[in-house]
Specification:
Elements: H1 28-39, H2 42-52, H3 59-71, H4 76-83, H5 87-99, E1 103-108, E2 111-119, H6 121-142, H7 147-166
Antiparallel strand pairs: 1-2
Helix pairs in contact: 2-6, 3-6, 4-5
Amino acid sequence: MPRPARARLASPTDAELGPVRPVEQGTLLASLSTIIHWADSHEVRAEMMHAAGFPIPDVTLFLVVNHLAHRGALRPTELARMLGTGPSNVTKITHRLHEAGLVLRTADPDDDRSVLIALSPVGRVIGRRILDHVADRVDAIVDTWPADEREALRRMLARLADAAIADGYRPAPHA
């Protein structure tokens, strides 16, 4: 795409170029934001896909397998909510994953009218690789920390996760 003509560009003096709300380094918000943006980055996802031997170069499909690996079988509506998309898109995504041999559609034992999307045996192997790789990465990051600091971090993060759930975040069922 060609660059807009100079006359249509705003002057750098007229544009606010910094963040809307600067975050002070070292604060809880800054640390959480850094971790979230790191984990959500294209580079980290691409590395995880490669390390897990993910057979399809599609981040959305990878995210579905990742969700299923973490949470177990899910209803398509739950997947749609997690991905921020609609049910028809989830149908297309699960069809592609099914064609690749990574997921199965199965009856929901709790509701005769519903189906669940579950990892196939091959999908479970790849899901295990994803989870193992993430665990290895986190372990490597804190490997040089003293054991008591690693344990304190584990306890505090568990407490933060519990508080997020109490505040209204609901992880998917079947976890």
